[in-house]
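[Automated response] Your request has been received and processed.

Submitted sequence:
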Amino acid sequence: MLGPVIAAIALGLLVLIVKWAFRRGPRVAPSHGVRLDSDAATHDLQPLRRAGIRSTVARAADGRRLLVWPADTERARIVTHRVLRRP
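Generated structure:
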């Protein structure tokens, strides 16, 4: 009689731990970079890398975000503007 109760408690704890571990929350902390125009996040990062700009694309609740380091923000805006204007 005690076995099924212990199994149910263990299963409940396991469900809570898995739910906590895989919860959806903010994927990107503001300290990881500066968000740029989200349209740029759908494009290749090669133009930014060729310009020596450190960047990454991160998943967020509202879609993909292009992140660059604060020191590279202005240069990244210029490069992404040029890339997005190309036909």
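Summary generated for your ticket: Residues 2-21 form the longest helix (20 residues). The radius of gyration is 21 Å.
If you did not submit this request, please reply to this message.
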